[in-house]
Amino acid sequence: MLKSLNTAATGMAAQQTNMDVIANNIANVSTNGFKKSRAEFEDLMYHTAKEPGTATGMNSFSPNGVQTGLGVKTAAIQKNFDHGNAVITKNPLDIQIEGSGFFQVLTPDGQVGYTRDGAFKKDAEGKVVDKNGNLLQPEITIPPNIQGIEIGANGEVKVIQGLGDQPQTIGQIDIVTFINPAGLKSVGRNLFTQTPSSGQAITNRPGLNGSGYLSQGQLETSNVNIVDEMVGMITAQRAYETNSKVIQASDQMLQSTNNLR
């Protein structure tokens, strides 16, 4: 009977993790470039009272055996890198990657971070940074007193000094891809970092080698589907409640045993 108590407890813990993941997805439904996650589970070890295929007599074998599962655990939390929808902002430094790839930014500790959030700004020196002040890589500096900024689909950045002047190229935005983007580590602030599981960052010009093109004046929204998350939340809640019922039933059976005279 103690096995069922512990087994149901692992089920409740697993559904709590599932609810935590769903809650984070819902909380980030309005976060630019956010990628939703999904909790994945696997069963624990089994108590084997009789091995499948054990001989039960002359020329006869047990077809199934006797094995009792001991519960469940969280095996992984999988990132879903499906693309979010586009929202038009008309801000010249808002950039969306239409397809695969990540922007590169340099954090204050000298580490390179990767993001799908293309809401960039200018700092006091005219350098292009993200909302947390991390420098876009390769570094681009916008000259003062310009009339306009053009960012091509291939990442070429041009500025217009005067209304009658020709655009001048001042830099190039490259993006990176990974063999296994699901292996990237989420570090918050819309950033990922490279891990041995993700593979090395592969730098590309936008539109080359399977990477996406850039679109100026628009942003990628979160890929969270609120209806799917609500359904998942209800399912997790019911599974949690059912596991708690198993604990109550096991406790009642133990109580009955304890009351025997």
Describe the overall structure.
With 261 residues, the protein is of the alpha+beta class. The protein folds into 2 domains: 2-78 and 224-258, no CATH class; 86-220, no CATH class. It is built from 2 helices and 22 strands. Helix 1 (2-27) packs antiparallel against helix 2. The protein is elongated, with a radius of gyration of 27 Å.
In a nutshell, what does this entry contain?
With 261 residues, this protein is α+β, with helices and mostly antiparallel strands. It has two helices and 22 strands. The protein folds into two domains: 2-78 and 224-258, no CATH class; 86-220, no CATH class.
Blueprint of the fold:
Layout: H1 2-27, E1 37-43, E2 46-50, E3 55-57, E4 60-61, E5 66-69, E6 72-79, E7 86-88, E8 95-98, E9 103-106, E10 112-115, E11 121-122, E12 128-129, E13 135-137, E14 148-151, E15 156-160, E16 168-172, E17 175-177, E18 185-188, E19 191-193, E20 202-204, E21 213-216, E22 218-220, H2 226-258
Antiparallel strand pairs: 1-6, 2-5, 3-4, 7-22, 8-21, 9-10, 9-13, 11-12, 14-15, 15-16, 17-20, 18-19
Category from helices, strands and their pairing? alpha+beta
Largest sheet: 3 strands, antiparallel
Order of helices and strands: HEEEEEEEEEEEEEEEEEEEEEEH
Number of strands: 22
Strand content: 25-35%
Outline, from the CA principal axes? elongated
The number of helices is 2
Q: Gap between N and C termini, in Å? A: 19 Å
How many structural domains in the coordinates?
2
Oligomer: single chain
Radius of gyration, whole Å: 27 Å
Mean pLDDT: 91
Q: State the strand order across the main sheet.
A: 10-9-13
Unreliable stretches, pLDDT < 50, 5 or more residues? none
